Amino acid sequence: MPDRIAVLGTGLIGGSIALGLKERTDAVVVGYDRSDEDLALAATLGAVDEATTDLAEAVCDVDIIIIALPVGAIKETINRLTSLPLKAACIVTDVGSTKSEIVAHAQKLKQQDVIFIGGHPMAGSHRSGMKAAHSLLFENAYYVLTPDPDTSLLAVQKLSRLLHLATKAELVIMDPVHHDRVVGAISHLPHIIAAGLVNMVGDYNEQNEWFHRLAAGGFRSLTRIGASHPVMWRDILLSNREELINLLDDWVLQINNMRDAIHEGDGDRIEAFFARSRRLRAQLPDRKKGLLAPVYECWLDIPDVPGEIARVTAILSEQSVNISNIEVLNNREELPGVLKLTYKKEHDFKRAVACLKEAGYAVYADRT
Ligand SMILES: NC(=O)c1ccc[n+]([C@@H]2O[C@H](COP(=O)([O-])OP(=O)(O)OC[C@H]3O[C@@H](n4cnc5c(N)ncnc54)[C@H](O)[C@@H]3O)[C@@H](O)[C@H]2O)c1
Ligand SMILES: O=C(O)C(=O)C[C@]1(C(=O)O)C=C[C@@H](O)C=C1
User: Fold this and answer.
1) With a 6 A CB cut-off, is 129 part of the ligand 1 pocket?
2) Which residues contact 67 (CB under 8 A, 6 or more apart)?
3) Ligand 2: does its nearest atom lie under 6 Å from the Cβ of 225?
4) Which is the closest atom of ligand 2 to the Cα of 190?
5) Which ligand 2 atom is the nearest neighbour of the CA of 292?
6) What are the residue boundaries of the Prephenate/arogenate dehydrogenase domain, all occurrences included (predicted)?
7) Which of 7, 16, 33, when mutated, tests ligand 1's pocket best, judged by the most ligand atoms within 8 Å of its CB?
8) Measured from the CB, is residue 125 less than 6 Å from ligand 2?
9) Which has the higher per-residue pLDDT, 290 or 308?
10) Considering the entire predicted model, what is its pTM?
11) Domains and CATH numbers, the chain
């Protein structure tokens, strides 16, 4: 019998998991959301077999429940689940960006015959809703599970296998407190910094509009995540308070160190600051392929004149190069060039770079 799975919240994350479940498993997926619009889109895109705005109906007789709501709503939903009849040995998991508080809150589910295993897929977007969902959103990303030490191993294995099939992510097990410290530093703090910078420059811009007009690659690439969902981030920050207070204290030290160096005109200290950062940034492990980093990519500058894209594709087709995607970039956030070409095979990529350079184009083959 295929598993019957309830996905509570058919937004970006729930919608992406549901799409993967339908694409790569034989599960029957029941979607639940308060937004009729997201539910209708999930049904139209084939992410769910059944859709409902009634929680009791959604979780009735299901084998697995995946709670993909904002962190505050995850806790409320856990409360509501405690008074609903759930199938015996049902596995309940969530996708919330914090873990300690949620895992502690979910202890109350132990009164029922259900197994709670906290979860957090480490990929996403500043965009929200089913409209932004994609079945490969998590491909090759880490997907953290935080089972209690006494959680049934069989249940952890069953959930890991299912999520791996549905998301193509790499499942890892972590202690919830450790998770919140690490993710606080590499995700929650950066979102605060990005939003703070956007707000600060927004204040300056009210006096002088050149601040926004001149905002180029540096500002845009650092602040992309400043466009993320306010309710989602309110809930995350309130749920990871202790860690974030420590991290913000460390951040103030970093910034004050630079403030002092600039104030004192200490060039050596400034240079060492950037040298260390450049070295450490280069050491970040490459999370390989996946939706956000297709297999082989190059970017090129082309003049803004009619027929230029056709010229590029003609050169490539003359050389029998297969392109898997071609994209005109509206802004240059983080990337050089205005035309992005993607290839599935390395030899197509190498031949394309060589012949486009030969034709006189400025071609960039790796991200900086
Ligand atoms: N966005 C990311 O990058 C990302 C990555 C990993 C994990 N997460 C976590 O995933 C969860 C969902 O985030 P998302 O990005 O999918 O958000 P989203 O806004 O795209 O989707 C949330 C969905 O929940 C619904 N919803 C909200 N409150 C509800 C309630 N009280 N009852 C019923 N439905 C409700 C909304 O209608 C929406 O469809 C959050 O806990 C977030 O911390 C997000
Ligand atoms: O790529 C983005 O826009 C994200 O913010 C994704 C991101 C992150 O910080 O990396 C955001 C929240 C999650 O809990 C996990 C991933």
Assistant:
1) yes
2) 8, 9, 74, 77, 78, 92, 93, 94, 95, 96
3) yes
4) 9
5) 1
6) 3-292
7) 33
8) yes
9) 308
10) 0.85
11) 4-174 (3.40.50.720), 178-263 (1.10.3660.10), 296-364 (3.30.70.260)
